[in-house]
Prior knowledge:
Elements: E1 8-11, H1 15-26, E2 31-34, H2 42-46, E3 53-56, E4 64-65, H3 73-78, H4 81-90, E5 95-97, E6 102-105, H5 110-118, E7 124-127, E8 135-138, E9 141-146, E10 149-153, E11 155-158, H6 173-180, E12 185-191, E13 195-196, E14 211-218, E15 221-229, E16 233-235, H7 237-243, E17 252-255, H8 264-271, H9 277-284, H10 287-297, H11 308-319, E18 321-323, E19 327-328, E20 336-341, E21 359-361, E22 369-370, H12 375-388
Parallel strand pairs: 1-2, 1-11, 2-7, 11-21
Antiparallel strand pairs: 3-6, 4-22, 5-6, 8-9, 9-10, 12-20, 13-16, 13-19, 14-15, 14-17, 15-16, 17-18
The structure holds dihydroflavine-adenine dinucleotide.
Residues 12-17, 35-37, 42-43, 46-48, 52-53, 132, 159-161, 164-165, 169, 171, 173, 335-336, 363-365, 374-377, 380 line the site of dihydroflavine-adenine dinucleotide.
Amino acid sequence: MTKDRYDAIVLGAGAAGLMCAGVAGQRGRRVLVVDHADRPGRKILISGGGRCNFTNLGTAPDRFLSANPHFARSALARYTPADFLELVERHDIAWHEKTLGQLFCDGSARQIVDMLLAECPDGVELATGQAIGEVDHGDGLFRLRLGARTATAPALVIATGGPSIPKIGGSGLAYDLARRFGLKVVEPRPALVPLTLTGDDLLFRALAGVSAPIEVRHGEASFREAALFTHRGLSGPAILQISSYWRRGEAIAVDFLPDRGAGWLPGAKRATPRATIARLLGDALPDRLAAALAGRLALGGELANLADARLATAEQALAAWRFVPSGTEGFAKAEVTVGGVSTAELSSRSMEARKLPGLYVVGEAVDVTGWLGGYNFQWAWASGWAAGDDIRLSP
Ligand code: FDA
């Protein structure tokens, strides 16, 4: 094998690319990993507030969005959160469960990047700070121009992620390459992203900085977590989660009091007839939010003077407050991308393209997107592992 001939070229030294390279390298494959960023794993480094929420114990296929909801099943079953945790523990990285099955490093996300690099044996060569030039395929080999040199391999792994956060290296290269090799791409959209409000809802801008535990719904999806009002609209974990399901022009429904059963407001009238709506809401919600909602409901005065029917209508409004977001804060603020290389093009076992043996697509580049909370890294590890386990030795 010549110096520039490899068993696989991996494009992207992020979560999925490094996992794939390590696994293939440990199986004796010679691998070249190329990235335009000056250092590997930049998204890992900033993830989870610098502590990397590296997996979720609740990982299950129904926590991933995809045109084919069954696609992720095989890879997620073959490489599980327990497998990644075993790796983390083998590298003596201290971790903790924060909430909802989310596992974080006690120390720093850097430990995860160092671990992935340490898992790459000598046969894995890392080329960072490298613009990816021409990529083509012929006679069973992929050829990659890297400045003055040309690297070749019978396998090419597209692991360049999605276009979220271009400032730290996110790009649409995966889609361009996939299309060039004849693979379909499901329209990419920003996901896990704050939603913007305009029109009547702009009144809520006065609440910027206020956060409250709510339930948000869109179609079949619902999330019970905190929402945060911002000067542009809505954010916080609940909103980021629902943003992945939302499409332009559609409404989301927010239940501001998800713990209250039906009939609580007429019931409160009987128990505390002298109370006002503003005071009742203030018992359960931050003052500024309670005042804004009470103002919108326009039900002044004591409960005793309000008809039960009006209270029932107010209760329904509070349980399904309708927002029609004007948009999202876009790829600049999106943690991930919904959509990507169509799963119909790939083997769910190995991530290899059906049309072009030797071509693999892994991680966020694929049309599989996880919920907030460590699911996206688990997909990166599992899909990277699946490809790394499949890459063949050069003939
Ligand atoms: P990833 O983005 O990790 O890697 C792609 C690599 O390709 C990068 O190194 C990039 O530089 C390189 N690349 C891209 N375009 C290129 C080009 N044109 N030429 C050369 N190289 C190119 N998930 C989670 O589970 N838990 C968490 O805590 C977080 N936190 C989080 C915070 C923030 C701020 C963001 C933006 C995202 C998260 N995520 C997350 C999501 C998670 O980071 C993401 O899903 C994975 O990193 C995806 O792994 P990939 O390997 O597919 O792409």
